[in-house]
Amino acid sequence: MSHPLRKEIENLERVSSALEPSGVKLDNYFSRIQSFSQDFLDEINSKKAWVGEESYNTENLGLEQDKSLENVLETFRTQVIDQGLVPSSGGHLGYIPGGGVYLSSIGDYLAAVSNEYAGMVYPSPGAAAIENNLINWLKDLFGFPEQSVGNLTSGGSIANLIGITAARDAKGIKGALIEKSVVYCNQHLHHCMLKAFRIAGLEDLVVRHIELDDDYRIKMSHLKSLVEEDRKNGLNPFLILGNAGTTDTGAIDPLSEMGDFSESENLWFHIDGAYGGFFQLTEEGKEKLKGIEKADSLVVDPHKGLFLPYGIGAVLIKDAQSVLHSNHYIANYMLDAYQEESIYNSADLSPELTKHFRGMRMWLPIKLLGIEPFKACLEEKLLLAKYLYSELKSRGFEMSPEPQLTVLFFSWRFVEDEELNNQYNKLMLEEILKDGRVFLSSTILNDKFVIRVAILSFRTKLSTIDLCLEVVENSKKIVLEQIQNPSFK
Ligand SMILES: *Cc1c(COP(=O)(O)O)cnc(C)c1O
The whole model's pTM is what? Predict the structure, then answer.
């Protein structure tokens, strides 16, 4: 007499086994996806970087089952890839460009197939070692001492959140002290810092914007006088935020002086290097980022500066106890996992417990290619920015200060009137986006609308920058013709 449940279980098994496709089926999927990916890569540099439409078609992206991989890929191509921004294009020169180094996708694939539990050492010593080795490499690169800790996060925002939380706990900022505590920063700090304050319960902090010099870097003299004045008024200065490249202007704050001052005042020094940090790999960058090693916490973003696909940021923190305070928690059901204490569990240094084994997407490309191609690519970006800057300048565009790294901005003087001139430069950007072969963004600095270029995609080459110049010139010409036309409003 067989058990009454056996039949029912066997019936369910017939359906659930679809979750484990046969080897033949996987082969078919895989070869189709491989050729799809190859086509994508072959075309990426000849396609537009921006596909703006009045309305996008997303009608087949619901959950209705479709057994045909061919159909699904076609929908993915037309309704996901070929609409909006194309982040993996070398023509992406807006915001902070993304990457998409192909070997990372294989790292992700292996991480997902094996599904290693990278959050703790006990279940996956190998995965934890890979992530730990990456953190150690970063500590070394940025001159952080051995006892520092670090974490690979989903991106720069969460990495900054971990840094801010550590600062909060190291300095005991809670309760009534919050309203009296002061943070000092460049007004062009990334908005994720303000989000981090809110999430960390620090919304009521006093935020002081430090005056900037002509290159958009904070002025040390103003920082010092603000801190002194705040202390005199009974406030509690606790945190200085430095930028290793602001998103808006690419400015590098005077990190070394900030670090010294922060130490002498017993403040926490946090550096956001999400955009510019990895230029540390180059000689020029290392010189410009001097003092980055003085940070108490530092954020860098491998999905920007190491050209990896979206989904990986990193934070380094000198004071391990401060991070453990907010993230380390031993639950009864996890006691087994705490016998091995030789290296930290990443789960103790982050809000995440179970997480994507994201170290693989960074480790595999470095393991297979070495670090040299990454260095060369960053150096190439620095030179491309200088080249574009001097070309635009010699063509008569009004220019930003010389790029400190790879962000620059420009405008054309169509008319004297500032407001009208802003309008015409907006029109010029619209024309650039209508063309779409390069994607540029904009910002507003001292009420002036400027078109902004950020060079950080590994696929941005000399030919891309020449194309950018051509598109900008054409767009300028179109606007000039428009405004000279008597029927123009
Ligand atoms: C991109 C960026 C961030 C945010 O990082 P995400 O990876 O987008 O979360 C923070 N700071 C700076 C300077 C950045 O450029």
Answer: 0.95
- Residue to mutate (ligand 1; options 95, 152, 187, 247; most atoms within 8 A of CB): 247
> pLDDT band at 487, cuts 50/70/90?
confident
Q: Is the CB of 155 under 6 A from ligand 1?
A: yes
CA atoms of 485 and 422, how far apart (whole Å)? 19
pLDDT digits (tens, 9 = 90+) for 112-135: 999 999 999 999 999 999 999 999
CB-hemisphere CA count at 13 Å for 13? 6
Q: 445: which strand partners?
A: 448
CA distances from 487 to 419, 420, 476, 482, 483 (A): 20, 17, 18, 9, 9
SS3 category, 485: coil
**Which of 85, 96, 255 has most ligand 1 atoms within 8 Å of its beta carbon, as the pocket-test mutant?**
96
Residue 271 near ligand 1, beta carbon < 6 Å: no
Query: Would the CB of 186 count as within 6 Å of ligand 1?
Result: no
Angstrom CA distances, 188 to 117, 157, 223, 448, 450, stand at: 38, 15, 15, 15, 15
Name the token pair of 449: 């609308």
